[in-house]
Specification:
about 190 residues, alpha/beta, 8-stranded mixed beta sheet, two-stranded antiparallel ribbon, about 30% helix, binds guanosine-5'-monophosphate
Length: about 190
């Protein structure tokens, strides 16, 4: 998506540890005109899928998922990062290792918000090693819902998550795939 790639080149900042900061337009301050275009692009790419629900993970996926949902006209549900898991049977639970915080979280989702009737589109801001997305895929599997695919705003193609998730047969649409980055250059996969 050219608009997004141009914005990454203009305002993205590469930080040590393979972190791309896009907090001036995507996941801290949010450029809603740009994210509206991102939402339209996800709708165009998944137009043939009978999506009934968008699933994301807190925190930075939520705003993007909500804007995208206005084009799909479906609810958004987000997995919550929990301090401790209450095993009362009402929640799907999984574990996610945070790439940015180097911590393992329990992630929970109330069972009543995802059922086997649902057709799910996953949305997140970044795909790096894939832990966040694999956690969401695990929750979808546990629910018995149908996974239609995953929409990612920025995939870091030099990390393993994208390959792993495509190898699982999941339809993965990333709007910008970064081939390589350093503090002096950033290239995209065509
Ligand atoms: P993964 O679980 O795929 O390793 O990482 C995905 C999550 O880590 C995303 O939800 C995002 O919040 C965060 N993340 C991974 N890489 C980056 C990055 O380069 N920049 C920023 N801002 N967040 C990242």
């Amino acid at each position: 998506m050219k608009l997004l790639k141009d914005r990454i080149l203009k305002d993205g900042v590469v930080k040590p540890g393979n972190i791309l900061k896009v907090d001036s337009f995507l996941n801290h301050q949010m450029d809603i005109d740009l994210i509206n275009e991102i939402g339209k692009e996800f709708k165009a790419r998944f137009a043939d899928c009978p999506i009934t629900k968008i699933l994301t993970i807190e925190a930075s996926g939520i705003g993007i998922a909500c804007i995208a949902a206005q084009y799909f006209h479906v609810p958004v549900v987000f997995a919550k990062k929990a301090q401790s898991v209450n095993l009362d049977g009402e929640m799907y639970t999984t574990k996610v290792e945070s790439f940015t915080h180097k911590k393992v979280y329990d992630v929970i989702l109330a069972k009543r918000f995802l059922t086997e009737q649902d057709h799910v589109l996953l949305i997140d801001d970044f795909l790096a090693n894939g832990c966040a997305l694999l956690g969401l895929i695990d929750i979808v599997k546990k629910s018995g819902a149908t996974l239609e695919g995953a929409g990612i705003v920025i995939e870091k193609g030099f990390q393993s998550g994208g390959q792993q998730i495509r190898d699982m047969g999941v339809r993965l649409e990333s709007l910008a795939i970064i081939e390589s980055m350093s503090d002096t250059s950033l290239t995209f996969r065509e």
